[in-house]
What does this fold into?
Amino acid sequence: MTTITNSKAEAPEPLGLPHSHIALFLAKLRAAGYSERTLKKKRSVADAFIKWSQRNGSELHQLNEDCITAFLGRSPERHIARERFEKSALRLLLAYLRRDAGVPGPLPLPCPSPVDELVCRYVDYLRKDRGLNENSILVYVPFVRDPSVPT
It folds into this structure.
């Protein structure tokens, strides 16, 4: 009995963002109701980001907002609409990776004073418990501070 084996061994996937995460990310977006056309565009951005991160030696646990900024600045030609779409797609991807793939989130900034500590806790509450976006947080946070009391 002769056994036929595949002579072409599979090479290990390079460091960086594995393609398997992209498939799972797109499946989540598909379940959320994104159109196939939009998913195709987001996959294109994610694939380009994978190649870029592998060329730059970035490992999965190192991916963060700075990597996205560097990726967006990779080309001297700036197409504003394309850059906005890429930024949006990569923010969704990073959120997915942090939630489902164990990529660490940004380190919290230290709060230097007791007032600043309370403001940080309030911002955290607005973001996590109330689900507000950054623009809404910027509107609400100034009301916490009493302008007549120095910090």
